[in-house]
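Allow me, if you will, to draw on your knowledge of protein folds for a short while. I have a record of one protein: its chain in single-letter code and its fold written as discrete structure tokens. I remain grateful for any guidance, and I place the record below:
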Amino acid sequence: MRVRENLHLCRILSENKSHDSSTYRDFQQALYELSYHVIKGNLKHEQASTVLTDISEFREDMPSILADVFCILDIETNCLEEKSKRDYFTQLVLSCLYLVSDTVLKERLDPETLESLGLIKQSQQFNQKSVKIKTKLFYKQQKFNLLREENEGYAKLIAELGQDLSGNITSDLILENIKSLIGCFNLDPNRVLDVILEVFECRPEHDDFFISLLESYMSMCEPQTLCHILGFKFKFYQ
């Protein structure tokens, strides 16, 4: 599509505020072709940014769509051997920074591109920080330490430990139930150990059961954990 035809199409589609998926894709494609004319050197980035500014008045979703287009072009121009096309892309993005927020661009563009645009200082540090944040958000298990933070889970734990221990109830069976509660309610294993000790104090007549339970439970914990918890309890009662 020629430059003039593409500019005309962009303006027409921008005035169509329909949320129809086909219209959205057509508008996205038109912005892509407009941007690619800049990369090929057929259109100056100043002219493109002027058109994009006019279009943004009609489309509230313009920043997000434009960021998606830049994301695709970022990948494509990174694979090209012609350095000039990469330079044209960088110039286009720089001229459109007032249309798309830094936050959105940081979500979509490559860290090295962000560094070349001056949006971040060092791409390597940005990558490391990004990995840490994602790990904390998606992979680090949240553990509830206070009873009030997960009262249902700890209530079930106390009920499990406080039940009648006669009959076929064994420490191995209770341990499996405790594991299920920890996994289901994200209970803090150290806090669970503390609760077991608290219930043990209230039911000393079942010492054989609780000693067996503690020995089995400690196989899942660090060796020094029990010492630390008992030490904290002794310090509390000084």
In short: Residues 147-236 form one domain. The chain has two domains: 3-123, 147-236.
